[in-house]
Amino acid sequence: MYTPKEALYFCSPFFREYFNGSGRDSEKMEFLDISVEAARTVVTYMVTSTFSAPPSITPSLARDIYNLGNRFDVMQLSGLMVAVERLGYLDVIENSELMEVLIEWFVTAHECHMNKVQNAAVAYLTSLHQAQYLAEYGDGEVTTSLSF
Question: Coiled-coil regions in this chain (predicted)?
Fold first, then answer.
């Protein structure tokens, strides 16, 4: 992925420090520990202030975007994460019957401060647990007695 270093320099304190230091004469930077989709999403947001949605979102991609945004010290990272959170929320709804996916979204949402995704995952997990409980123990009425 090609991005002019001048654009990166102006968009991020991380890159300003890099280009003023050891990367002054570099023509290329390689990050082997990040996904291409996360890099494309974060750099596009840094340079254009617009969100270019990845083809699909997963909890690991959302986590990579969040971590990379923090690593690159992206200005207005919260704006980027609002867009990522919206996609994550839609994925939680789409996968509302898959407990493994919901658990992964719950953990990711907690780590990345995506409260709406976290709340949605908890709601669907609660529904799944309730359905499992009723399937295992029957659907008898639960009564509560209150005495005054």
Answer: none
Does domain 5-137 fall into CATH 3.30.1330.30? Answer: no
Residue 99, SS3 per DSSP? helix
Burial class (CB in 10 A: 0-12, 13-18, 19+), 140: exposed
Among candidate residues 88, 64, 71, 53, the one with its CA nearest the CA of residue 15: 71
How many Cβ atoms sit within 10 Å of the Cβ of residue 38? 22
Longest dimension (CA), the chain: 79
Spatial distance between the Cα atoms of 121 and 124, rounded to a whole number of angstroms: 5
Condensed to tens digits (0 to 9), the pLDDT of residues 86-144 reads 999 999 999 999 999 999 999 999 999 999 999 999 999 999 988 888 888 876 555 44
Domain ranges of the chain: 5-137
What's the rounded Cα separation, in Å, for the pair 48 and 7?
10
**Residues near 3 by beta carbon (within 8 Å), at least 6 away in sequence:** 43, 47
Q: What predicted TM-score, i.e. pTM, was given to this entire model?
A: 0.82
Question: Are 12 and 72 in contact, with CB atoms under 8 Å apart?
Answer: yes
